[in-house]
């Protein structure tokens, strides 16, 4: 029978020095002091996205003026990596032109974070998927004349 500690260890490939629960200072800072937490009463775009494999999900809201994201708020129901990477995503998206915001990828989030453990890389997708879905809702509303 395996030791209970072995259940939490991450196999490391050549040159991979990230463990399952090892987070760098950037991730820890965004987890302990998340930016842009909350909701927007009447958002221009919003989305709820989740990862059915781990159960994490987020609600993300946008306020847009002209073609710029002027406010972005979210609530995360998930792990430390999901909270931190969504906070980082918001920092990347705020005050961005909509086309630039649409170009943000999970790789941008991971790079800005300074890396995240391999088994938590999927968390960086939540914020990006939420942003893209909220922007899609905004564009649909605008096309229908709601904006």
Structure description:
The structure is a single chain. With 147 residues, this protein is an alpha+beta fold. It has a single domain, classed as Sufe protein. Chain: A, CATH 3.90.1010.10. The chain contains 5 helices and 3 strands; from the N terminus they run H-E-E-E-H-H-H-H. The chain has a 3-stranded antiparallel β-sheet with strand order 1-2-3, with helices on one face. A hairpin with a 6-residue loop joins strand 1 and strand 2. The protein is globular and about 45 Å long. It starts with 24 loop residues before the first helix and ends with a helix. 29% of the residues are buried. About 11% of the residues have low confidence.
Helix share bin: 25-40%
Task: Please mark out the parts with pLDDT under 50 across 5 or more consecutive residues, or reply none.
Answer: 4-19
- Main sheet: strands, sense, barrel: 3 strands, antiparallel
Beta-strand residue fraction: 15-25%
Radius of gyration: 17 Å
Task: Give a count of the beta strands, DSSP E runs of length 2 or more.
Answer: 3
Element-level helix/strand string: HEEEHHHH
Q: Give me the secondary-structure category.
A: alpha+beta
- Going by CATH, the architecture would be Alpha-Beta Complex
Strand order in the sheet with the most strands: 1-2-3
Named CATH topology: Sufe protein. Chain: A
Counting structural domains, the number is: 1
The helix tally amounts to 5
* End-to-end C-alpha gap: 61 Å
Regarding CATH, which class? Alpha Beta
């Amino acid at each position: 029978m395996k030791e209970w500690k072995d259940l939490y260890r991450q196999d490391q490939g050549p040159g991979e020095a990230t463990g399952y629960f090892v987070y760098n200072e950037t991730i820890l800072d965004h987890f302990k002091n998340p930016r842009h937490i909350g909701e927007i009463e009447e958002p221009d775009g919003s989305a709820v996205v989740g990862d059915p494999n781990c159960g994490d999900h987020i609600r993300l809201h946008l306020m847009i003026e002209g073609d710029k994201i002027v406010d972005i708020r979210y609530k995360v129901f998930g792990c430390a990596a999901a909270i931190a990477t969504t906070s980082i995503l918001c920092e990347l998206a705020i005050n961005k032109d909509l086309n630039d915001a649409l170009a943000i990828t999970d790789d941008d989030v991971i790079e800005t974070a300074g890396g995240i453990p391999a088994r938590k890389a999927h968390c960086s997708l939540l914020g990006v998927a939420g942003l893209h879905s909220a922007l899609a809702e905004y564009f649909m509303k605008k096309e229908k004349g709601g904006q």
